[in-house]
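Readers outside the structure-tokenisation community will struggle with the description of the input data as it stands. For illustration, here is how one protein appears when written out as sequence plus structure tokens:
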Amino acid sequence: MKFIDVAKYFDNIEKTTKRLEMFDILSNLFKETPNENIDKIIYICQEQIKPPFESLKIDMAEKMLQKSIARATGVSLKKVIELYKNKGDLGLVAEELSKAQKSKLIQPDELTLIDVYDSFLKTAKSSGVGSVDIKISIIAGILGRAKPLEAKYICRFIIGKLRLGVGDPTLMDSLSKAKIGDRSLREKIEKAYNLCSDLGEVAKKLFIEDIESLEKFKITPGKPIRMALAERLSTPEEIIEKIGKCAVEGKYDGFRLQCHKIGKQVKIFSRNLEEISYMFPEIVHSIKKYIKSEKAIIEGEAIVYNEATEELMPFQVTMTRKRKYEIDKKSKELPLKLFIFDLLYINGKDYTEKPLRERIKLMEKNIELGNGLELAERIITENPEEVDRFFENVISRGLEGVLAKRLDAGYSAGGRNYDWIKLKRGYKGDLTDTIDVVIIGYIKGRGARAKFGIGALLAGVYDKKEDSFKSIARIGSGFSEEKWQELKSELDKISLKQKPARIESEIKPDVWVEPKYVIEVAADEITKSPMHTAGRTEKESGYALRFPRAKSFIRVDKKAEDATSVEEIKKMHKMQSDV
């Protein structure tokens, strides 16, 4: 497959502001892609080279890419930098300089998808002494052969700014349509994806083998399972009425980790399915030594724990353990304790379809407690009063709230349903629970904020059904002056000239941005609003946050699709009304 054809499809996706058109363009791209290469197209659309758990990244800074462009097009580095300052997009810089260069040639070489993908792969695998020059040379080589439009998307991919605005739900819908002409395969595709976390592998099996191959995906230690999520209810009474006798666990505010033991090796995956084992050496050591099986998969929440005072530290302290440097030093200063709440695989068997009560017994039997490993605090009850007492007890000790879990339910990989129900203090009255929103644009500073160039954020929540982001608030407070400046700098790197197809907003900010960054906000309540699109229908107004203020900076542990959903907002609004 010629890469110019891929680039033309990407160009058409970028130009559309309609999600259904994007869906049609993608399905046509997948139909045209040779079956043996469909995984590579999927990874590129996801702005990856391999699935995230393989931790393979090109790792080229803008300055390195500028040198590649200069070398490929025969212009000075100074010229590249000047053009970049003017255009603000190295893809457009490469496109313009490539046009000038190619006008002097009769015909550039024809690049294939494999040529480009293999160059990305080779660049990502280059490491050690001299790797910087090697990376610059590899990319300069492929850019030297690229047509202008190809150069644009090659450069954007390299620095993580492909800007297609395509989410996994749209990719799965498009794969289904490309295979059978409609979206009816979506559920089977998603189930397979939930078990292996590799949409490229799922697509390749589907296109090379058959639809039945989707049923053959199994859990494999070493490959993360997409994590289960919880619904909300507002009172213990509602919870017991909904699921009856249940396990009620403390809800911890730390790093949610999925830990895989494979012989003497341990792999730890984040909520985003990235391998982060190197960050937590003490947890790796404990799992190797105290999990009684050669192969196992467990889930838990890791929190910095003060042994002297027996206190769990706040999330802000725990977050300081997410780092690349001084890891051993920090692990001694701020040791983590892993509170284990589920066991998904052990002794060669997959237990995700087994009831929770059985998985609890397996945890108790196969995990040697202490040494940084503890089972999540849990009671089993069908009495709302016991739930309430347990809730108040864990809140008093610094936990977020509780999770109630259906005892006869399996583990719903990648799903959000009433098998798990969370109860936090905010659900018992006013909106004191926080909401995770996605930044979709910003309003330039006015008055005292003029010097920052940013005065307020336009924020949205995620509509999973439509794979889009709907506006819900303008946020102008909660950050220090330094954080506002830092935030503007980060947002300008992902700014867009037009509203992306995945954003639905009647409010037009001064600057649109790629929906990428999640922040945590508090608000007085959720109200109805004709201005915002979250939850809006032909008959109903949308929802808005009243007096929103930021409670955290960018949540590096969450993707845009992990933000609070429109459905959750509807339920939280109803909880307010029912109080």
Q: What stands out?
A: Residues 14 and 172 are 19 Å apart (CA to CA). The chain has three domains: 3-158, 229-428, 435-578.
